[in-house]
Design brief:
Helices cover 36% and strands 14% of the residues. The chain has 86 residues and is an alpha+beta fold.
């Protein structure tokens, strides 16, 4: 079983890798890379790799149960629909 910080980081990464949600982006410049989760002093925060922006507020929806599974289902339905229209 993952530790609480690693579990949060996994869920944030699942969100950031989903094609169907708005990614968590830099508050200084939305053209920067998507925010990256890191654990500092037993707290997970989001950081921008392009500047010094840090975000401590992470939306609750990211931690809802089964988001990764729902994302996989959406991806499957998207591919199925896309293939049906080609």
């Amino acid at each position: 079983m993952l530790g609480l910080g690693k579990e949060k980081i996994k869920k944030i990464n699942d969100w950031q890798n989903c094609k169907f949600v708005h990614l968590l982006t830099c508050g200084n410049n939305s053209n920067h890379k998507s925010l990256k989760p890191v654990e500092i002093n037993n707290t997970v925060i989001l950081v921008c790799e392009n500047c010094d922006y840090k975000q401590t507020n992470i939306p609750d929806i990211i931690f809802k149960n089964n988001f990764a599974k729902k994302s996989q289902i959406m991806e499957h339905l998207y591919r199925k629909d896309k293939n049906a229209n080609t």
